[in-house]
Amino acid sequence: MLEKLIPKKIKGFRDINPSLNKLRWDVLGKAKEVYENYGYKHWDTPVLEYAECLGKYLPDKEAVDEGVYSFRNPEEEPVYKNDGNELRDEKDEVIMDKHFVSMRYDLTAPLARVYSEEVFLQSLRGQLNSKNAPLFRRYQFGPVYRFEAKLQPGRFREFWQLDFDTVGSPDVSVDAESCLVLSEALERIGLERGTYRVKINNRKILKGLLIGLGITNVDQENNILRILDKLDKIGLTGIFDELGKGRKDESGAFIPGLGLDHDFITELMSKFEILSGIEYREQSLAKLEKIGINNEIFLAGMQELNKIDSLLAALGYKEDRVVFDFSLVRGMEYYTGPVYEVESLLKYTDAKGVERGIGTICAGGRYDSLVERLIGIQVPAAGASIGVDRLCELLVLAGRQKEFKDQTVFITVFDDELMPEYQKIAMELRTAGLKSEVYYGSQRSLKKQLGYADKNGYPVALLLGSDEHARGEVTVRDLRLGEQMSGDITDKEEWKKKAQFPVRREELLATVKKMLEQTQI
Amino acid sequence: MLEKLIPKKIKGFRDINPSLNKLRWDVLGKAKEVYENYGYKHWDTPVLEYAECLGKYLPDKEAVDEGVYSFRNPEEEPVYKNDGNELRDEKDEVIMDKHFVSMRYDLTAPLARVYSEEVFLQSLRGQLNSKNAPLFRRYQFGPVYRFEAKLQPGRFREFWQLDFDTVGSPDVSVDAESCLVLSEALERIGLERGTYRVKINNRKILKGLLIGLGITNVDQENNILRILDKLDKIGLTGIFDELGKGRKDESGAFIPGLGLDHDFITELMSKFEILSGIEYREQSLAKLEKIGINNEIFLAGMQELNKIDSLLAALGYKEDRVVFDFSLVRGMEYYTGPVYEVESLLKYTDAKGVERGIGTICAGGRYDSLVERLIGIQVPAAGASIGVDRLCELLVLAGRQKEFKDQTVFITVFDDELMPEYQKIAMELRTAGLKSEVYYGSQRSLKKQLGYADKNGYPVALLLGSDEHARGEVTVRDLRLGEQMSGDITDKEEWKKKAQFPVRREELLATVKKMLEQTQI
Q1: Is residue B285 classed as helix, strand or coil in its secondary structure?
Q2: If you measure CA to CA, which chain B residue comes closest to A311?
Q3: Which end of chain A, N or C, is surrounded by fewer C-beta atoms within 10 Å?
Q4: What residues contact residue A166 under an 8 Å CB cut-off, 6+ apart?
């Protein structure tokens, strides 16, 4: 209960202003085009879903309510039995319950639901298997929601993702294609080649490595992977300690280790060190050959990466776009094969003058088990996601946001009686394809009206009082010329003449058009 | 608790498939252009807001949790006092609470929050008043959420709105502009003039009428307006009964009446009957003059409508676009001046052969008090909203959805060894500006692969096996020709030659381009 109503957003949520929206929709529009060029189709799913359908696939979360906005649906609905029928009590009444619903935390879990819903009857009838599961390729964009209890600066609880996925194919050509799509989308959005790189690994490489060293328990595997995933943050030494007896972090707090055997850690780390580090793809693949791991899973992973490499090579995708990085883990436990992420190499200088990067802007991989929990049948799937807000932030920080010049013609309002005339001018301009805004506030000073135009970055203002109207004239003011010269006025009279002048009403459209062409970049 | 996981959407929610998405984004894109032409700027706000900030402005709802998805924020936050400071206990500890949050039920309440948040400090300092409140013009689109306990068929609990509003101006020219914007947007979207009409009324007319007849209590006024609002559903007789002793509805249930005095009802109804009915705007305005109501509010309403009419007339907006309808109430109690809605005049034939209309597709009006509850200062505001989903439904039902021909070139996959070649062809086509999709499933039959292409409406498929590859050829299949002729095959051999033929690899691009040009509409 708020005692007082204070108009504000929930912490971690934000408003998107016109300039950021311009950028966001430019990014979405361009990536969308690329996705469509590859045959992905635009689907949309609700923001709200049954909690059980979304599942618990948040990174490192065991419970559905951790990190997810969930609540009870206000509607009572039947509870279902395993055979798909309604659960009933002794009196044969359907048992009702208010089910938990969640705000989607990503776009992949809803995809699994869409796909599963589509093939559900087939799966109940036993007509569906991994091999005949229909191919489904979709892209989707929109907000997702995460309740991060400790919100880091610059992070949000509502943010936009832009996903594309292929469900129904085990072919790692799909994974290769994902890397093409990411690379092409980012370049279309405006990231030059060399300012980003797509990094690929395969879960089977890391899993195979651990199996080769004797780790066969899945929980233990995940625990180790979670620590290897921290390479960027804690380095090889940090990993060494966390696999073993633990370590103190910068704040002095003790982080308990896994307590693994010293010899095992030494061997793992020596291999992991060899594997980490980015080289020519050919050399990276050669390292895998030489590492001395020969189990089936490792070899399968190698074969998949070789296939991906040969496709990339055939299409001329060199290391300035796509590389292998065998230290890449990707947090999500649901990945089962190739994983990929895009690292931005752009730097920016923060308020304290420190040079910083923004890291990962896209991520994805193969998840062959995500549909299984919903329909009991493994259906192969792979895809990736662009972190739209993160990418927009990068474009702003690195100064890559294209300057947008609003070309709206602004019509100031002096005299309420002339409102029909102001509107007619606006309509004439719009009919000619120009944007035009009439200011609604005849009681306000010209200064205030022009302040509004200035705030919106408008190039041209029109002024029309009853005298000018009687003479058949309109006064035109060049707001950008004003802006340009105001710091360096040598001859005020001349400036005035250039920046503000009368034109005949019938010449207005032509004059304004010409001015806009000049101010356009 | 679901015993079994059944992959499904929450009742009242839906997935948007590619075809509906195409339509939705076509509608959004075109309306957006019109909004921008008038100077409205694109803002976005979160889906989730503090319940207190959104308020209880749902039609006919008294409590915040009726009709709105609300739940407790998982985060504890301070409770605020009336002076804006945190509330503290005896030990001077800040009192914390988990505040209620709501999924937005429209885009107007968040607008009021955005605006209020912007001017909040100014308002606290006493620097803000109705006259100097800054002008703010924004458009916004996105999903809104309503928990309708009894969900009508064809209604949804998540649906999209597309709003534009002007905050900070009392000038009813804004309301006139709203009607221009709605009309222009609908015509750009594809509704021909004459298939829709914008209807305008003014709350001050109805309020003035009631005052003239002695009703000064606001609750009573709202009760009467709520019944007058049912004109379309229950007719004049139904209104008469509900104002008086009540009536039985079609199901036989008794609807209690307001129990108003018979003479009062007779007088109200005689005037309401005169006022209802659509004529030339000039004649409508003349009726107001003659109705015999002279109180200040009624006269102010008349003056506003006259101003709106004179603007519309000056711009050439005749009755085929905008009319007056003095029986128009609009449910929302927050409207304080002009109200408007757009009625679609298009009919469609339902499954039972009955001709039906779809009614209201846009609505709006002036709401001068919405910001007041957040900052204590009345700030004039007006705007309107397009019901995106309702409009899309109308376009589909009335057969106005433009046929969309997907122009993606489909590449079938026979031989896994040739995957690099398939990809190269796809890349070559994409580089030339064509869409192209490689099928990922070499193990599947050609029939299955072509079935997928067919489902997606693709025009051309390419077939390439190792023999053709060795000969430097690719087989091209015209899928639309196939479709076109399959019902009417006279010479199978000739059809085959036309529908499927080999081309030299180096002539592939040119051949496909030519085919696509022919299949394009």
Answers
A1: helix
A2: B420
A3: C
A4: A135, A136, A137, A174, A177, A381, A382, A383, B440
What are the Cα distances from residue A178, in Å, to A139, A197, A383, A386?
12, 13, 6, 11
Q: Could you read off the pLDDT of B254-310 as tens digits, one per residue? A: 999 999 999 999 999 999 999 988 999 999 999 999 999 999 999 999 999 999 999
C-alpha distance from residue B11 to each of A78, A99, A115, B446 (Å): 12, 11, 18, 39
Please state which CATH number belongs to domain A10-189+369-396: 3.30.930.10
Burial of A153 (0-12, 13-18, 19+ CB in 10 A): exposed
Domains in chain A: boundaries: 10-189+369-396, 196-344, 409-519
- Tens digit of each residue's pLDDT (9 = 90 or more) over B448-481: 999 999 999 999 999 999 999 999 999 999 998 7
Which residue of B lies nearest to A72 if distances are taken between CA atoms?
A: B71
| Beta strands per DSSP E along A168-285 | 196-202, 247-248, 254-255
Structure-token pair, residue A49: 């879903």
CB atoms A53 and B5 under 8 Å: yes
Q: Is B274 exposed, middle or buried (0-12, 13-18, 19+ CB in 10 A)?
A: middle
Kindly give the pairing relationship between strand B360-366 and strand B338-344. Answer: antiparallel
**Residue A239 vs residues A242, A254, A324, A327, B2: alpha-carbon distances, Å:** 5, 14, 21, 12, 41
Cβ within 8 Å, pair B39-A408: yes
Give me the residues of A, 389-408, that contact B with CB < 8 A.
408
User: Under CATH, which number does the domain B13-49+105-194+345-404 receive?
Assistant: 3.30.930.10
List all residues of chain B from 430 to 449 with a beta carbon under 8 Å from chain A: 430, 435-443
Range B409-519 classified under CATH 3.40.50.800: yes
Residue A74: both structure tokens together: 């206000």
Of B49, B311, B437, the CB nearest to A423: B311
